[in-house]
Amino acid sequence: MDAESRPAPRSRESGSVARPRRGRAAPRSAKGRERPIGVVHLTAEYWPLARTGGLGEAVHGLAAHQASMGQPTSVVLPLYRAVRQTAPDLERIGPPFTVRLGSRTEQASLHRVPQTTAGPAVYLIEHSEYFDRDGIYGADGADYADNAERFAFFCLAALTALPRIGPQAEILHAHDWHTALAPVYLRTQFTEDEFYRRLGTVLSVHNAGFQGHFPQSMLGELGLSPELYTWDVFEWYGRMNVLKGGLAFADLAVTVSPTHARELQTAEGGFGLQETFVALGDRLVGILNGIDPVAWNPATDSAIPATYSLEDMGGKRRCKTALREAYALAAPARMPIFAMSARLVTQKGLDILLGANLASFVEAQFVFLGSGERRYERALAELARGAPDRIATEFNFTDRLEHRLLAGADGLLMPSLYEPCGLTQMRGQRYGTVPVARRVGGLADSIQDGVTGILFDQYTPEAFAAVLRRAIAIYADRPAWKALVRNAMAQPFGWQASAERYHDVYRRAAQH
Questions:
Q1: CA pair distance 23, 275, nearest whole angstrom
Q2: What angle do CA 101, 102, 103 make, to 5 degrees?
């Protein structure tokens, strides 16, 4: 069934339950390419207000670029406690309003970050009980028990306030499972108003490893019909799967690199949702993220000890000296420093890295920046204690430290188990820090083996040790290493090309 012949979904109040959209999305059209399309992003994270990883930076980068190109762009996220610390001068927009969540009625308030630059309009949903907490998703290493209700409430509140937030909106762009119920609610509870009926929906999957699994009974508590608990909507091995339900209702789905889009459709890379991703057909699109080329520019970066560029690399050498001094590393002639800046979790390849016996690589030095699981922090700290002149750790991550690390290191380690997109490898290349990475997801799409970086395939300690030996050997060949550095620094990793592809996606979704 094509987009034009799909029956319009009816509201829950009318006695029928809307079903998710099926079939192929509307065909691409060359007409109207230059016309800006209004978009509202719903997200659980947004840099610099609240983030735990790359999600907040990716949404910020895309939204900021869209706004800079004249596209009506708004962003909505919960008003966490951390946001008040980052942006204390919030503006309240209108009076509190009522949100119906299942059998409960809650009050929400809408706030806005004062705009001082020509960026996207940023709005926040206030509900003290749900969001005025220490963490975004949880505390003390565990998720909050009411995360389903918290993020369902956020979706309903954002939809309720949407006419005030984005009166020119044509696209509702939800990000990850935390906002995946927005397309569902839109097509089941907001169908009486033409403003909502005309909205196209896009759901971005930044990390399919997090899907929002809850008991079947949660559907009723969230105000969703039990008729939606079917194999093709919410049901997933006896549980409710929020991401799966959102994918069923979204007009188009996007993941954050072309290679990862293909990986999601396999048993090895689909996180148990491979059949869902396959069924999406051409409604699933892979678009590589970008980075901010102004914030990540070694020629103008005020956070690093010395600036540098392709034309003058002297500052890179001074940054390396400063990095060695900061972590009391030895200063032998021509020994490379390999850095790792990442959350210390299984996804980032810590198991094979620790299994590769880094202490035996006496011809290299290593610096690790990031925090995460205690077992990995303890293992890395033990490595550093065994070879303090060659291995250093820094578990107190800051943006400034990451800038200084990438400016001072020679190579960047990314032995990821999976990596939907990754941003650090793009930043590393901009700073002439050659990525040594596994050929997965966005790493495969943004690193050219032997040209801008060094790639390997097998997820084993032996394969990682072998690629590290290869990187050390290339570093010893000064002309070969300099060629890698030059090629890496010349790569364009801004948002322009990606934003053009999102424009195509929005145009297709708007024709729902």
A1: 15
A2: 105
- Which CATH homologous superfamily contains domain 314-489? Glycogen Phosphorylase B; (3.40.50.2000)
Q: How far is CA 61 from the centre of its chain?
A: 10
In this prediction the pTM is: 0.90
What distance in Å separates the CA atoms of residue 135 and residue 465, rounded to the nearest whole number?
Answer: 37
User: Residue 416 carries which side chain, given as an amino acid letter?
Assistant: S
According to CATH, the topology of domain 3-9+43-290+496-510 is Rossmann fold (3.40.50)
Task: Kindly list the domain boundaries of the chain, sorted by start residue.
Answer: 3-9+43-290+496-510, 314-489
Report the relative pairing of strands 169-175 and 200-205 from DSSP bridges. Answer: parallel
pLDDT reported for residue 34: 65
Averaged over 56-77, what is the pLDDT? 95
pLDDT in tens, 329-359: 999 878 999 999 999 999 999 999 999 999 9
Residue 105: its H or E element: strand 104-112
Is residue 412 within 8 Å of 340, Cβ to Cβ? yes
Q: Beta partners for 59?
A: none
Sign of the Cα torsion 450, 452, 454, 458 reads negative
* Residue showing tokens 């009926």: 197
Per 3-state DSSP, what percentage of the chain is helix, strand, and coil (rounded to 5)?
40, 20, 40
| Structure tokens belonging to residue 67 | 């706004």
Query: What are the residue ranges of helices labelled H in 169-293?
Result: 181-189, 194-197, 218-221, 242-249, 258-263, 274-280
**CA-based angle 375:377:380, to the nearest 5?**
105
User: In Å, how far from its chain's centre is CA 356?
Assistant: 28
Domains 3-9+43-290+496-510 and 314-489 share a fold: yes
3-state SS, residue 181? helix
Q: How far is the C-alpha of 212 from the C-alpha of 230, rounded, in Å? A: 16
